[in-house]
TrEMBL record:
Peptidase M14 domain boundaries: 321-644
GO biological process: one example: proteolysis
Name of this protein: Inactive carboxypeptidase-like protein X2
Composition-biased stretches (Basic and acidic residues): 47-58, 71-85, 117-138
Residue ranges constituting the F5/8 type C domain according to the UniProt record: 138-297
Protein family: Belongs to the peptidase M14 family.
């Protein structure tokens, strides 16, 4: 099916013995965004990624380029060898619509910070820096400072102001947070402000360097950034060659403020192992501080043991690329055409700019709620610039469809027993802004908010305060339930500052009886569970557990423990927080308080248990990183969906076998109830154990029973049959007779009148035939 839609397959065969890469029909456009000009590099490297941590291995020998035949080593020792012209990559059938790494020259170039040497200037130079042939313009991916693929041991600097401002903190988009301290600060800062300072990256193998991206220091209080710098490269970290501009050293223009990334492309690619940035000027009254990313294509080196033992591969035949709004819709359509029997595309509303919020349902009976089958959802893109979650969900759609067709028993069971909803882009307006900036030049916040400047993640009604204030007053003057708390009237008014996207999600969650959900976010590697809001006033961090804290902890751990990196104690922290003490999970309020979060709203207003899943340190990774990120998250995404079948489930019926909607399910010892759906079915997430469960509904006598939850996957069936109360029966009778009291004498008169009319007798004669009984007065003694 894919071949028909995308054209004939033109695969690239790998010479690596581990596996053979063939370009998938879905993945065909992936190679366009991330392919390198050297086809040999593409074959070996596009799926290969090093882990975040450094592992012990053999001593690394210094790299140096191979010498041409007949050339003595001493002749080239002080210089870098000029490589031959790179091979051109085979032209893909469908050209990419735009260069993803940076906007084209002249299009928002100043705003996005793209600065490079013009081709006319480069062509007029009399002297050229040893490098690749100039007629081939390459677009190499980032080496991985932001994604932590480059380890701390690969970063070095001349001097540092203190440990928290060391070279290991000089990563693009790294955040210092509020507590700028000796351990976690927001940049590399030199110990002295002079022209002899530098920061260096060891690529650990020969690399074709093509560009440098820089930022200033992330700080709430200080303004530090570098305004110009030189670039030097080396093969041994002792002999350095400076990038030239004609006969002199080339000075690259740096930043004009501290947050917007600025890209400078090298006039020609430089082949070396080490690259060094040497600041030449900096902001007045500031210091030499910078964050950076290096663009480069590692050259093939089959003898490099360090790389070979850590390469990352994927065998999934998916479309590994970034999809704009139009491409996302097209991909959904392709998946729907491949799997029409288990997929359905629908929208839950529109964005501020009028873009539809598309969702895909995956079920064996799409379009209908099956009694007894739980509903699950994934949401991504609440922050438009946190793109990784969006692409992971699009990959998940493809994966489930392909594996279902391949008769994967695990996927078949999941699809047939669960109704899955996937909403990849909740904030498409914000995503389009981030997409224009590209994966490296959007900074930390471009596209985060909706078009009208609202942060969807904390735009939901604050129901926590309503509940906690009622509990503190002991429910005086009125009782507030521990679930299904009503939305305040002010929030529903048209004048309330509520995004259209937020209202759409609320309506969606009220319509569908979701049991479990995850919203994918970016910029960290952790799973956060509610409450997200602190209970104590004037605190910004405080552990605030829900009554279902033990269940939420398990749900969070089920994702984190199956992720490749979240629970790895050896991995480096993304920014400032180390979540290893809780195995890659965290209570949201103990991290940072958020009022009106989706997680808290979902828990207090619906039956759904919602968690925030932060899937990567880099919010918007380069396309070349998507295969590795998919491998990191694939098992976790599936395992988390399977948790919807943990706990108890069942039906609440009346004596006639009819389902009772809106019945309350209470578990003894847990001060949080859930309710049955419109058909009377329910699902209650619980950890293994024995529970006393009560079902009650208005007009029915409550029923209580013991329900056992085992360790095996699959919810325990726990059904209830409720009988109506006497009062409910009386009300039924009254409603049947128009809410009029029943009078037996009046009913007798009506019967007599009916018989009289049947026999044609006058009323007096009828009374003689059926005399009214006389009531005798008691005699006085």
């Amino acid at each position: 099916m894919f071949s028909k839609l995308w054209g004939p397959d033109k695969g690239v065969q790998s010479t690596c013995p581990a596996w053979t890469v063939s370009a998938s029909p879905l993945a065909r456009t992936t190679a366009q965004g991330a392919a390198l000009e050297d086809p040999d590099y593409y074959v070996q490297e596009v799926w290969s990624r090093e882990p975040y941590e450094e592992r012990p291995g053999p001593e690394l020998e210094p790299f140096s380029p191979p010498l041409p035949e007949g050339t003595e080593e001493k002749e080239l020792e002080p210089h870098l060898r000029e490589p031959g012209p790179p091979k051109r990559a085979t032209k893909p059938k469908k050209a990419p619509k735009r260069e993803r790494l940076a906007p084209p020259p002249g299009k928002n170039s100043n705003r996005k910070g793209r600065r490079s040497k013009g081709p006319e200037k480069a062509a007029s130079d009399d002297h050229h820096i040893p490098g690749a042939q100039e007629d081939v313009k390459e677009s190499c991916p980032p080496l991985g400072l932001e994604t932590l693929k480059i380890t701390d041991f690969q970063l070095h600097a001349s001097t540092t102001k203190r440990y928290g401002l060391g070279a290991h903190r000089g990563r693009l988009n790294i955040q210092a947070g509020i507590n700028e301290n000796d351990f976690y600060d927001g940049a590399w800062c030199a110990g002295r402000n002079d022209l002899h300072q530098w920061i260096e990256v060891d690529a650990r193998r020969l690399t074709r360097f093509t560009g440098v991206i820089t930022q200033g220091r992330n700080s709430l209080w200080l303004s530090d950034w570098v305004t110009s710098y030189k670039v030097m490269v080396s093969n041994d970290s002792h002999t350095w060659v400076t990038v030239k501009n004609g006969s002199g050293d080339m000075i690259f223009e740096g930043n004009s403020e501290k947050e917007i990334p600025v890209l400078n492309e090298l006039p020609v690619p430089m082949v070396a192992r080490y690259i060094r940035i040497n600041p030449q000027s900096w902001f007045d009254n500031g210091n030499i501080c910078m964050r950076l990313e290096i663009l480069g294509c590692p050259l093939p080196d089959p003898n490099n043991y360090y790389h070979r033992r850590n390469e990352m591969t994927t065998t999934d035949d998916l479309d590994f690329k970034h999809h704009n709004y139009k491409e996302m819709r097209q991909l959904m359509k392709i998946v729907n055409e491949m799997c029409p029997n288990i997929t359905r595309i629908y929208n839950i509303g529109k964005s501020h700019q009028g873009l539809k919020l598309y969702a895909v349902e995956i079920s064996d009976h799409p379009g209908e709620h099956e009694v007894g089958e739980p509903e699950f959802h994934y949401i991504a893109g609440a922050h438009g610039n946190e793109v990784l979650g969006r692409e992971l969900l699009l990959l998940l759609l493809q994966f489930l469809c392909q594996e279902y067709l391949a008769r994967n028993t695990r996927v078949i069971r999941l699809v047939e027993e669960t109704r899955i909803h996937i909403l990849p882009s909740l904030n498409p307006d914000g995503y389009e802004k981030a997409y224009e900036g590209g994966s490296e030049l959007g900074g930390w916040s471009l596209g985060r908010w909706t078009h009208d400047g609202i942060d969807i993640n904390n735009n939901f009604p604050d129901l926590n305060t309503l509940l906690w204030e009622a509990e503190d007053r002991q429910n005086i003057p009125r009782k507030v339930p521990n679930h299904y708390i009503a939305i305040p009237e002010w929030f529903l008014s048209e004048n309330a500052t509520v995004a259209m996207e937020t209202r759409a999600v609320i309506a969606w969650m009220e319509k569908i009886p979701f049991v479990l959900g995850g919203n994918l976010q970016g910029g960290e590697l952790v799973v956060a569970y509610p409450y997200d809001m602190v209970r104590s006033q004037w605190k910004t961090q405080e552990h605030s557990p829900t009554p279902d804290d033990h269940v939420f902890r398990w749900l969070a751990y089920s994702y984190a423990s199956t992720h490749r990196l979240m629970t790895d104690a050896r991995r480096r922290v993304c920014h400032t927080e180390d979540f290893q003490k809780e195995e890659g999970t965290v209570n949201g309020a103990s991290w940072h308080t958020v009022a009106g979060s989706l997680n808290d709203f979902s828990y207090l207003h619906t039956n759904c248990f919602e968690l925030s899943i932060y899937v990567g340190c880099d919010k918007y990774p380069h396309e070349s990183q998507l295969p590795e990120e998919w491998e990191n998250n694939r098992e976790s995404l599936i395992v988390f969906m399977e948790q919807v079948h943990r706990g108890i489930k069942g039906m609440v019926r009346d004596l006639h076998g009819r389902g009772i909607p809106n019945a309350i399910i209470s578990v003894e010892g847990i001060n949080h109830d859930i309710r049955t759906a419109s058909d009377g079915d329910y699902w209650r997430l619980l950890n293994p154990g024995e529970y006393v469960v009560t079902a009650k509904a208005e007009g029915f006598t409550a029923s209580t029973k013991n329900c056992m939850v085992g360790y095996d996957m699959g919810a325990t069936q726990c059904d209830f049959i409720l009988s109506k109360t006497n009062l409910a029966r009386i009300r039924e009778i009254m409603e049947k007779f128009g809410k009029q009291p029943v009078s037996l004498p009046t009913r007798r008169l009506k019967l007599r009148g009916r018989k009289r009319r049947q026999h044609g007798l006058p009323l007096s004669r009828a009374l003689e035939m059926h005399p009214r009984p006389m009531r005798m007065k008691p005699t006085q003694s």
